[in-house]
Design goal:
Elements lengths: L5 E5 L4 H6 L1 H10 L4 E6 L4 H7 L4 E4 L13 E6 L6 H7 L6 E2 L20 H11 L24 E4 L11 H13 L4 E3 L6 H11 L13 H9 L3 E5 L2 H9 L3 E4 L5 H4 L7 E4 L14 H4 L3 H12 L12
Parallel strand pairs: 1-2, 1-4, 2-3, 4-5, 6-7, 6-8, 8-9, 9-10
Helix pairs in contact: 2-5, 6-7
């Protein structure tokens, strides 16, 4: 029996990158109902890929230069990774009969739209596909919560980590906010990866949180998703957890530093608040971004209060 032709999609990046591509992936799924959709992405993202409902297969791909598709007949390749040339070259090495990508000067024979720098990441990939006649809904960001029970149902979740120091709000400020919320009687937990456990413990110590409040390193990605889905509030920086909050419509306060929320923030909903000083910088910097440093504890507590003032958003609310 002949194998079903495959659409190969490259997005070999992180959690937030995956979740901002969900509308594009679902657009591809709808436009190719008789094709197998294979997503080239890091193996660790598999628990979230399963929740999207638009991907048939994960092709383990750690990053650029690692793509090796051996899944049978390839019908189409889609570049949701970047504008090239490395990502384009990765896909072309798989010998697809057709490739959808943003235009690049090194590949004059490939049609595609011009890259627009000032665009939200979700809309960027929807725009690419729409240029090729594939319709997408940029609001189609929701994920079905995982069936696993949350390790901290109804908790206020503080996630202090981020990929670079430039995007990490100071420990003592996270700790002060955590202490205020804990003093009001709310359960506060601190999440993160195993490598971020010292950071999470420092926040918990600063806040005087009880033993067991630190979940960093104790939950899988799927388990973390369950915690976010069943949380009362998420407080974090511009990182993957913020996009999980969007995906599950969990109330959130997100702290932006060197990057504008106009490019990576949540959709306009009453349960999501973004704080940004308006200053741009290096998102990969090795020291705290000045714009992020300008956000005060009072700013954050005020945003928490505004989010929680929406009665339909948070049962019981928070008194801040």
């Amino acid at each position: 029996m002949a194998l079903t032709p495959t659409v190969l999609v490259l997005r070999a990046l992180g959690i937030g990158d995956l979740l901002t591509a969900v509308p594009a992936l679902r657009g591809i799924r709808r436009s190719c109902p008789d094709r197998r959709i294979a997503l080239a992405a890091p193996t660790g993202l598999a628990p979230l890929v399963e929740l999207i409902g638009a991907v048939d297969e994960l092709v383990p791909t750690a990053g650029l230069g690692a793509l090796d598709f051996r899944g049978g007949e390839l019908d189409l390749a889609v570049n949701l990774h970047g504008r090239g040339p490395e990502s384009i070259a990765d896909l072309l090495r798989q010998n697809p009969p057709r490739t959808l990508t943003y235009r690049h000067a090194d590949y004059q024979d490939l049609p595609g739209p011009e890259w627009a720098a000032d665009q939200h990441e979700v809309q960027r990939w929807c725009s690419l596909l729409e240029w090729f006649g594939i319709s997408c809904n940029a609001e189609d960001l929701d994920l079905t919560p995982p069936p696993e029970a949350s390790a901290a149902p109804g908790a206020v979740v503080i996630h202090p980590g981020a990929a670079s120091p430039a995007r990490r709000w100071p420990v003592d400020r996270f700790g002060t906010v955590a202490r205020v919320l804990a003093d009001q009687g709310h359960r506060v937990v601190v999440t993160g990866s195993a490598g971020e456990r010292p950071l999470a413990e420092a926040v918990a110590d600063s806040a005087g949180l009880p033993p067991g409040a630190v979940l960093a390193g104790e939950t899988s990605l799927r388990g973390t998703a369950a915690v976010v889905a069943d949380a009362r509030l998420i407080l974090c920086g511009d990182t993957g957890i913020a996009h999980l909050a969007t995906a599950f419509r969990t109330p959130s306060v997100i702290l932006f530093g060197p990057v504008s929320p106009a490019h990576w923030g949540p959709p306009r909903r009453p349960q999501h608040a973004c704080l940004w000083s308006g200053r741009r910088g290096d998102p990969h910097g090795n020291s705290l971004d000045p714009g992020l440093a300008a956000i005060t504890v009072e700013d954050v507590l005020g945003a928490v209060g505004e989010v929680c003032a929406e009665k339909h958003v948070m049962e019981g609310g928070l008194d801040v």
